[in-house]
Amino acid sequence: MYLILMRHGEAVPQTEDVPNRERRLTKEGKKQVRTTSRMLARFLKDRPLRIFASPFMRTRQTARILSEECFAEGLHLTEELLQGDFRQIENHLITDGGPLALVGHHPFLQSYLLEAAG
């Protein structure tokens, strides 16, 4: 199984007019995501990829671009990717041996990497 952890691309800053949940990718952020997604597509070849993303705008945009560039089997939004504790979603999301991408944010990804590294 391949487990791909992907952080969203560069996003507009949070302001009083733009809440954190609605921050969109910048033009550069979209370019970053497209470049990374194309590299992943070459690596995965035609293996179907399941994608899970947090419901925030910037992660949804990132996941959509990833889905466009890779052979995506499905794109699912889940609040569980806003958690800092990967154990809460581990058994729920990882059920088979196919490639799986988790598109999230810094706190979640950092927690998972620290936990996985021991």
From the structure above, extract its key features:
4 strands; 4 helices; 18% strand; 118 residues; alpha/beta; 4-stranded parallel sheet
Describe the structure concisely for a colleague.
This protein is α/β, with parallel strands linked by helices. The protein has helices at residues 27-44, 57-69, 87-93, 106-117; strands at 3-7, 49-53, 72-77, 100-104.
How is the secondary structure organized here?
Layout: E1 3-7, H1 27-44, E2 49-53, H2 57-69, E3 72-77, H3 87-93, E4 100-104, H4 106-117
Parallel strand pairs: 1-4, 2-3, 2-4
Structural commentary:
With 118 residues, the protein is of the alpha/beta class. It has helices spanning 27-44, 57-69, 87-93, 106-117, and strands at 3-7, 49-53, 72-77, 100-104. Strands 1-4-2-3 form a four-stranded parallel beta sheet. It starts with a strand and ends with a helix. The relative contact order is 0.23.
